[in-house]
Amino acid sequence: MRKCRKFVVVICILVSGIIFPDTCKSQSLLGITGLVNTPTARMQKDGTLSFGISYFERKHQVYFGGTKDVGHAYINLTLLPFLELVFRANRPLYYETFSKYTFDRTPIVRVRLLNERKYLPSVVVGVHDFASTSAWSTVFFNATYVVLSKKLSDFDFHFGYAPRIMKAQDYQLDGLFGGLAYSPHKAINLFAEYDTKTINSGVEFQFLKHFGISLATINFDSFAAGMNYKVFL
Asked: Which domains does the chain carry?
């Protein structure tokens, strides 16, 4: 039985080397290039268009005061090698009246200031939820930050800071944050992070260069998951 299992694992690795020819940057569950909740200074390949959905259990969700599980749907476009644009829709799930509440819109812009070099990290600045059709009290996903990423072997280190620049009801990132990603295989990304509020961990599996599935824990007592599909223009 053990020999059979080892044989299956070897075959899977060999096959995956064929069907996963390129290493993709991980997509966070909130639509940006990142880990679970936090951004990294990585960018998708120029011309990458991705679509995704994600689900978070209500615990630790400031949106709707933690009374509802939250769903997200997003579109992410890497328009240039240094520019990432995201539009995300956020909605409380199991809402009693669909017509009474639709969704909260979150536009995101990320710009890479510096490519990673031998002794220097990659540097990205980003702004989340910078436009609202109503008062600041309805802004729940704001963040303005700078983040640095440096790869050492199979490990990718990320460190950032998010100050309160714009007024908002709540901030997705508020202060120091950071994370670590490890890729034991080109199709698997393991990661852990501190998102300024909770400690999270997760794994992303990538299939056929286009599909990604992520599973995560929020503070080790809440569940989150997502999937995305990438198109290379």
From this structure: 2-232 (2.40.160.40)
27 close to 48: Cβ distance less than 8 angstroms: no
% of the chain surpassing 90 pLDDT: 60
Specify the pTM. Answer: 0.83
Average pLDDT estimate for 14-42: 74
What does the block give as tokens for 69? 């599980």
- Kindly tell me the number of DSSP H helices and DSSP E strands found in the chain: 1, 12
111/72 Cα distance (integer angstroms): 23
The residue among 25, 50, 44, 83 whose CA lies nearest residue 231 is: 50
List beta partners, residue 175.
162
**CA–CA dist 10, 14 (Å, integer):** 6
pLDDT at 136: 61
